[in-house]
Protein 1
Amino acid sequence: MNKDVLGTALRDHFKGNSGDPLITYMKLNGYEEWIEDEMPLEYLFRDFNGMPVIEQRALELCRGKVLDIGSGAGSHALYLQEKGMDVTGLDQSRGAIAVSRLRGLKKRALAELKDYNGTNFDTLLLLMNGIGLAGRMEEVDAFLQKLKSLLAPGGQILIDSSDIIYMYEEDVDGGFLVPDNDIYYGEVIFKMEYKGQESAPFHWLYLDFRSLEKAAKANRFICELVSYGEHYDYLARLIPAED
């Protein structure tokens, strides 16, 4: 089992040796079957014009010293670097960090967010469902507190997610058949496959805005809805509340 399936795929694509797609599998809460999808690797190397409006807006709002959390191939961080900003890309994938270095990203950090204790930043950037790194609903508080510990005074968090309730079956009244258990419907299981190599399954979280707003308030953040995307997604900005 390849622990860095994403990194391997990114390396291959950068070197022109891919050809095979990166396949993702998602299992919804309460379901046994996996939902299969393909992610074109070129999408992970997109430039500013190829990014969704939500990502473009987030990049425009970045200021000061920036930490791009889950930086992947470095597309967001490289855009900011080209604009003259002081940006660091943080990712737990060794392959992703290697590719971002080869693409010219000057500042990089190989680590999981929970283990990272770098300097403080004016902007924390978490895109492509950045809230997913929390993993589970029960980890959101610790996740937000970790982010707060990395913020400089007056700093901000720019983060996106989606409300995936639309993926559940509808009932006769137009509602959704969400499993009757104690697990939030946005908690899913993910795994990735590339060239026959499969990652270990991992927890991933999609959080509706109201739930993010509630968690932010509980952790002493002011939560602002910046914009909605075209497919149930949104961009939010969190700023620590004054004591």
Protein 2
Amino acid sequence: MTEQAPSAAALSEPAQNYLQDLRVHRRLAARTLALYTQDLLRLEALAREAGTPLLQLTSAHIRRGVVQMHAGGRSPRGIALILSGWRGFFRWAVNQGLAAHNPVLDVRAPKAPKPLPKALPVDQAVRLADFAEAGQDPWIEARDAAIVELLYGCGLRVGELVGLDVAASMAAQQQGRGWVDLQAGEAHVLGKGSKRRSVPVGRAALQALQQWLALRAQPFGGRLEGSALFIGRRGARLSAQSVWARLRQRGQLAGLAQPVHPHMLRHSFASHLLQSSGDLRAVQELLGHASITSTQVYTRLDFQHLAQVYDRAHPRAHKKPGES
């Protein structure tokens, strides 16, 4: 059965005049007009429920409507779109001299919950790091392995990774690039807000870097002018887009269930480190977060992990309601 469009005939005269104005002057498509009609029908239902004339609704009435929609399961984005339609109607009404003020002006939809960052399970992250593509060019394989180890082992952003040089230099510091100090086992990067930080490079990442550096200049006869740590076939600094593409391909070949991207490895670094240490402040420093509230999202990931372990393993997790 085809869903019928909402009827504008059920609307009050001001609402119908507003729709006519939209149709004539803004030339909105029929589908868009139908959505505006639905919004106005909701608004008039709110006015009837409040026992108030449509054009005399207050901000308190509108906020009550928002609460009702939210309690009814409508998404924050859906509520925001409806409020936008109501706001436009009252703006028109004020301009026409039909309403004294716009009661929707300062009303906002509820904030949508921030989605949890996607992190790989530990076993999948390790599988990706240990994976070696059969028959792959050793030069490419060494480079890609070092990239994975630095992203997962140091929690670098992809921009920080591709900005690394093989060694410290005055030019690198002046131009906002980073470098890896193999002897000290540290990566020096320039993060968000032009803030420099140093992060430890673990044993696996150091080994992968050493293997890559031993091969890095090989295709160029041992002579390579550029200072970029990670380069492409022509010797130019690898782009962030290239890293994304290489990781996606590597994840598919390694048999991972979900597409892998650089920030997922950063999330995995933070989540797995927090699960092991519980040291939120240290994770904040390693990630280069200016505020610890940015890091606290990983505590939600950690709790999610613990809840899953509980559901799988605890004998009381599967107890049925009413059982003694």
Protein 3
Amino acid sequence: MVAEAVPLPLPLGCLLTSLDTDQDGVCDIVEVVFGTNPNNADTDGDRLSDYVELFGFGGVDLSALGANPRKKDIFVEVDYLPGLLPTQDTLNSVITAFAKAPVSNPNGSTGITLHLVVSQEIAAADVDLDLSPVWTDFDKIKAKYFAASRAPYFHYMLFAHRYNGGNSSGISRGLPAQDFVVSLGFWGGVPNVAVAGTLMHELGHNIGLDHGGNDGANYKPNYLSIMNYEYQFHGFVIDNIGGVLDYSRVRVAAFSEQNILETSAFAPIAPTTEADLDRIGGVRVNGVNIFGHAGNFLDFNNNVQVDNGAYSLDFNRNGFAGDVFPAAQNDWLALIYDGGGQIGFATPGISRHLDREAPFLVTPEKMEPCLTVDLARAP
């Protein structure tokens, strides 16, 4: 990252001759005052430079919006079709999930500050009840309602009615990505937890999570994450509180459909412990909540008892009860913050390099529609 001879406005306390080791536009002496790392232009690793988080740039004042260069931030502009803006409580449930993330920050705190910045209702003249083709019609709205000055720092999302003529709950524009759609407007009376879960699910794709965490395999029983379709509309029961949204915060050992033991349920992988798994309830199998907790005594076959012997069961709905699912990751430690290369430093002269060979793990054209709503069986 090189910022030499770039006319960034000098922060108060810096001179043109002041030492700026990381060349981020903030001189070392001022970095000491703010507690940022003078050897790293992005102290907290959220792909927003210390300069823009402290002082803003290009007409966007991230500091006024609550950015902290010593704690990870994610900014999302939220636009919506008339009547589709969720309640603040619904949005807060997602914000709270990120605040409770097991992610360490340079300021000694844990969690990620998610800024869901509600912006505009789409005017009646621009309402499109079926975004088809989805990204062509989405771009028409984005071009009119999303300020270009926000593009280097914000994800952009739209609460829509439906897209491509189907009943998909939403879609991300690749993985990772900058844009996503929550398309539940066609579902009358949609539960708040389903709206919040879908928002968090699609944002999860934007920040690098697939339906199986690090792969696209869905319905993996040992993958306890809102990215798993089993939980997108329901969340979890954590510490006996229902409707809790979470990405996987536990590592769970490989699991075989051929050798199920209800008395032992899932096995943890360090640093996850049995006690961590025992906090997690609301486990679902084939669309049904089952009795017990993830650590032990799980009624996988839902026969209202804990069986002592081993048996087999088809979890991922492929008609075969012999699959072995690999160990599940801790999602929170695997997030990618650059939005497919669209979100980054974005100050003149500072490169927005990727830490990956390609901007996408899954390109937009190969991104599958997310969970389809069966209105006859919807929760």
